[in-house]
Amino acid sequence: MRARLRLLAALSLVALPASANPLGTYGFGSRETSMGAAVTADTNGASATFYNPAGLAMADRLTLELGHLRVNQRLLIDGRDTKTDPVKGISGGIVAPGELFRVPFAFGLGVHLPDDRLSRIRTMRQDIPRWELYDNRAQLLFIGAMLAIRPARWLSLGGGIAFLSSTRGDFAISGRAQLDSTYDSQLRHEVDADLTTVRVPILGARVELGERLSLGLSYRGEAKLDLQLDADIRGEAQKLGIVAPVRYTLGSRSFDAFQPRQLTLGASTLPHKRVRANIDLTYVQWSSYQSATSRSTSHLEISGVDGVLAVPPDTKPTVVKDPEFRDRVVPRVGVEGWIVDARVKVAARAGYAFERSPVPPQTGTTNFVDADRHTISVGAGLRVPKPSDVLDGELRLDAHVAWSFLPERRTVKDNPADFVGGYRASGRQTNVGFTLGVLF
Amino acid sequence: MRRPWATLAAVAALSVTGRASASPQDVFGYGPRASALGATGAASAEGAEAAWANPALLSLARTRELTLGFQAARLSLRADGPGMPGPVYAEPFKGTLVAAQLPLPFKSWLRDRIALGLAFYAPTDVLVRGRVLYPETPQFATLADRVQTFSLQAGLGVDLGRGLRVGAAVSALAAISGTVLVATDTSGAVGTKVDDQLIATFGRIVGATYDVGDAYRIGVTYRSTLEARFAVLITVRDLGFDVPVFNIAGLAQYDPWQVQGEVARVKGKTRVAIGATFKRWSSYPGPPEPTVICPPEKPDCLALRVTPPGFHDTFVPRVGVEREVLADPRFRLLGRVGYFFEPSPAPEQTGASNQFDNDRHALTLGWAVATRDPWPEGRFEAFFQFHRLVPRTHHKDAEQVAAGAPGAPSVETSGHVLFGGVAVTARF
Fold first, then answer.
1. Contact B192 A296 (CB under 8 A)
2. pLDDT of A165-202, one tens digit each?
3. What secondary structure, in 3-state letters, does chain B show?
């Protein structure tokens, strides 16, 4: 059988540099991670580009940071490890403080680069069980560029943009397809595509209430990846001497790597001159969540081949169910204590966060697997002021370990004959990392 | 190249799809000063612009600077002849510049020796425009979409003393790699399964300069090939008959490796830079890749092969002059002018292919107001370029292009490019 095919495909694939997700889930910077990420009112390094850009204005020295984190995930369904990819990557950034029009000012750049890829888009059927929040959404790059000012001693304001992008365009294929010997097909293609810009705002404010108390407020916008595919295949099919025109149309649209809108209020206090205690409350608007399931349609036309070629009927269009995720409030707490020596300062830190699952009971055909998440973190920090003749600033080394526990959650289906059936989900995650900083 | 540790300095990256593209800084130069000075800079760059022009010159930085700017270009391109469209549409482009110069304030013997530079350009509408069109489609393959691309450089410059400086930078892009599977599921519904990754790709920039006395400097910059592919394999099943796997792949972005040399007068009221850039275009493989790939067990299958475009290497001469035209205790006014000639690397289009390109003469202009105390220290700069495409005639080979076919017997291509922008630099 021979066929001449013409494929006009409009594909919208996606590429996502930058979003809040891996950092929101696993933390940005070892100091911040070891304090349960309760730092909205208490961060001024590169991590401030994610947690609260207003904190950049509190920096008084040019700062360079570099670190690495690795998160091993053992996420189970019915006791079996789902082999969810680890999250690993380097994090860091630059904070450059100064004055502009005699007002304290700072520029900050924060980056998280996954080791294996900048981002990944993966869509699958909604009935396939998957850990929706910890699988593909964690494989993302973060790039944030922020500015901050301190118009009054008690007030800092900051904001900036994290960058996202998606690609949209047309793919066209034409030529002769040799259907009984496909590798002899003489086809060619053209592409007309754009990688479009998506900008996600991050805003923050910080208020100093005396020497021992500060409040922080930060906002991160919503983002998602748009994924589209439309194809129109036209040509001729030949079998047993019969030549017939062929047309095949295909449409697919989906979203991936959804990042919910978030608003965080934090407080930081110094109950003792060498002890700091922080608390954050984050409202996360998961109710806007859109599933990564593709919505697909297709139609095949071949005329004049009755009895010669079996033409499959139209497939049913995919109906994507609303995942009906629920908003949640995430509490976070962190403490830090310092031991100060004449030459070095050493810190010990601990934190805790509780994230209630936003995923409702999966009693129907969807299988978005999730469970509540408790995260306990510890860490240590070392500060070496004026480490050498050439550097009169400070060297910083911070390290963290965080354990997340996802207690077992049982799913029971309304339909006893459900194709997937009920299951148990549980898991744990181990997050280790370090951050090295130089203050000039 | 997927080396995350090497990428930290580069930070971002963006993606791809495109025709024989290259970065906008390769077409116009990067930054308000270099763009006004004939895209010179290997011996004369100042500020964060040096991250592209010559990272060694970042070590001249003594103060922190942040630059924000806007630039835009309008391309008027023509292909005239039988069956040709006349005007060839090329979308205008506009985008923002963000650059930062950050000297590292070491003390003692490292004082004023090392500095960082970050140089971004982001189009306002798209991050990357990429096209791989059928070769018979009239197009200006190496110009029209080259400017519609995000660019990023991050570099470090070191002053070694005795007039010698060295530096290195990373230029970043990204590529798409993935698969699309179209098939019906167990319920009979059609589904698409997409697994798509954005992968960083990097180019290296290294440079060195040497001060010859107080007033003169020589500089050389090497930039490695910077390229990014898109590669998406599309598999369609359940049609009722077999179709091949479609390899939708190509080269979206391509900067050839290049060496830029320059001599500059860098002291006094009048400063001059003269140099040239060698561009290794002959290594350019062309944008498309085969739609059907022969399997190892059948390497001589009849699938269409891609013909290399036959580009040749080029030399780009450049000159730039900057003069202080007005000096005041509070500010200085600088005038800038430059020129460069960019020969086309593309051969005459004698066959069915209509991937046009022309030699370009580029005249560049600009000015800067540099303010100082009691005003906030900084600069306000404007720059402008006019590129004239030298008219070129493509004589079609009668054996390849039938009489009466589009383009036969010849096509004349021409056009011009207007490019300009403004930038504000603040010291802080």
1. yes
2. 666 666 777 777 676 677 877 777 777 666 666 778 99
3. CCCHHHHCCCCCCCCCCCCCECCHHHHHCCCHHHHHCCCCCCCCCCHHHHHHHCHHHHHHCCCCEEEEEEEEEEEEEEEECCCCCEEECCCCEEEEEEEEEEECCCCHHHCCCEEEEEEEEEECCEEEEEEECCCCCCEECCCCCCCCECEEEEEEEEEEECCEEEEEEEEEEEEEEEEEEEEECCCCEEEEEEEEEEEEEEEEEEEEEEEECCCEEEEEEEECCEEEEEEEEEEECCCCCCCCCEEEEEEEEEECCEEEEEEEECCCCEEEEEEEEEECHHHCCCCECCCCCCCCCCCCCCCCCCCCCCCCCEEEEEEEEEEEEEECCCEEEEEEEEEEEECCCCCCCCCCCCEECCCEEEEEEEEEEEECCCCCCEEEEEEEEEEEEEEEEEECCCCCCCCCCCCCCEEEEEEEEEEEEEEEEEEC
